[in-house]
Each structure stands twice: as C-alpha cells, then as structure tokens.
Amino acid sequence: xxxxxxxxxxxxxxxxxxxxxxxxxxxxxxxxxxxxxxxxxxxxxxxxxxxxxxxxxxxxxxxxxxxxxxxxxxxxxxxxxxxxxxxxxxxxxxxxxxxxxxxxxxxxxxxxxxxxxxxxxxxxxxxxxxxxxxxxxxxxxxxxxxxxxxxxxxxxxxxxxxxxxxxxxxxxxxxxxxxxxxxxxxxxxxxxxxxxxxxxxxxxxxxxxxxxxxxxxxxxxxxxxxxxxxxxxxxxxxxxxxxxxxxxxxxxxxxxxxxxxxxxxxxxxxxxxxxxxxxxxxxxxxxxxxxxxxxxxxxxxxxxxxxxxxxxxxxxxxxxxxxxxxxxxxxxxxxxxxxxxxxxxxxxxxxxxxxxxxxxxxxx
Length: 364
Fold this sequence. Notes:
Strand order of the largest sheet: 4-3-5-6-7
CATH class of the largest domain: Mainly Alpha
Number of strands: 7
Strand content: 5-15%
Order of helices and strands: EEEHEHEHEHEHHHHHHHHHH
Number of domains: 2
Oligomer: single chain
Distance between the termini: 70 Å
Number of helices: 14
Helix content: 55-70%
CATH superfamily of the largest domain: Hypothetical protein af1432
C-alpha cells in the first residue's frame, strides 16, 4: 500500500513500526504485513521505538502493551504529547484480555486495540482504516498550512500596497513643502518611540509609525501663496491654514487600511488640545483620540526644533522647556498628562532622532 506525500503529492510506501520485545512476535507481524505491500521497521523496546521515530517517517505503529523498561502505555503517552509524533496512529497489541488494560491503552492515546494472537484479517482492516484517516488528516493539515501561507502572502502584499500608498501621498506633500520631507521621517520615529514608552503594543506602535506621516496631508490642498508665505499669516490666512486638518481627513477618506484609518484620525485631530483650546472641534481630554494626542506633542517638538518664517530653530533643551513649562504660545496643559510624562522620560531619544535625520540630510 502507498500514501501520497503531502509535500510533493508523489506516492510512497507505507512504513509501519513494529514494537515488541519478543523477536518471534515481530517476525510474525512482519510476515502478515509484507504481503500487503507495507514496509516495516522493528524495535525491541520503547526507547528504541522513540529513536526510530526520530530517524524515519512512520505512518502507523503496532505497539506491544507489555514490555520491559517503559511499557506500551508510557510509550504512547510520550508519542502523543510530542507534536512531531502525536498524529501517528497507534494500534496497541497485548495478550491481556481485560477491560482495564484496554482502557489504559486507549487513555494513553492508542487509536485501536488488538489482542494476541493477532487475527490477520482484523489486523489488515484496522490498519487500512487508520491509514485512510491519517491520509485525510495529513491532507487537511497540509491544506490548512497552504491556506495560512496564502493568507500571509496576501496580507504582506496588502500591507506593502498600503505602505506604498502612504509613501506616495507623503511624497506629494513633500513636493508642496520641501521642509516636510525630513519632518515626516522624524515624526514616524518620534511617534513609534513614544507609543512604546507609553507601553502600547507593537501593533499600535507599527500602525502609528506608518500613519503619522499623513498628519499634514491636507496641506496639499492649501493655496501656495498661503502655505509658502515667507512671513506670518494674518487672521484670514490662519483660518485657511487650519482647514488642512479637515481636508486631510477628507483626502484619506474611508479606507479599510488600519494605517490610513489612523492617519485620517490623526490628520483631523492632531491640533486638538487636552484643555479644549485646539481645533478643529475643540475636543477636550480623552475625547481626543490617543494617536492624535501622541502626534500632538511630537509635532510641536519638531516644529520648535525647525526654523519657521516667524521663529528660529530652537535647540533641544529649549524645545523641551517650552513643552514642559510653557511660553505663552505652547503650554503643558495642551497635552495629555500621561503622554507628556512619557515624553519627559524619553526626550533625549527625540533629540537623537532629530540629529540623525539632520545629519543624513546634510550627508554627515
């Protein structure tokens, strides 16, 4: 008899392991099996059987109940507790003909039980039935592994597609404002690092890493004469600039991507303030989504470190001082207290991220 190989689909001979401490019993069982086309391997005790299983691909085990050393029940328990051998069917064979022995063998994990002397026809039927079940089980296992692999491949393809879309959109924003490029690269690192400092899981940290660069995507819809104005904005221009939050959320729209969903949430709310004085909706406290609360402090830090038409670039210490103590324009009350505390703990890492990006940009 042959089985198909789950890996290649090619047929192969069935291999049956015979485990019995009596040579004559092993020879008898081999004599019964070989005319049916089965290949046999023998072991004279439980430990040898376990060693054989480590070296050979076995399809079924004929296991003697009574053996010196470790008996058949103990062998079965070991094999059924090992992921590598737990699916190999076991037929327990014994000269004992009592109910307790059968229950012990079945409880140990044996699929079938035969009494000595073994009836040839009964042995063949039991083996064929168990091998059919094993072949079907192997097929299902291989099929499930194939499906899981395909799901993983498609998930990876979809993830790459989402990330490519994000990079395309952020590159579009970079063309509008040359300073945006290094800013968004730093923002990703700031946000992921701060999320980790807050004890958020890796799924959230990875998501905010890819979502955060889209926070200012709405600026591509702001007229150039306002966006690129070299001086301070007047009140009317400030109102137009503030529309970039809602515009960004609208551009990102409804998406199944968790990254773009979070990106839209951040775009809309990253200028909200913990004390309710932000925009566009004046949200307060925990009504502001957590990703936007994390983004808010990262965005302010990077803005303070960067040169603007209305201000010079501040050093790290001054930027931290403004965020943690306030300067009239930026106040500690603008930020989630838990996020602010985490920022204080890892502020030095923000400084390192800023310097790394600037050095890369200038080829240092």
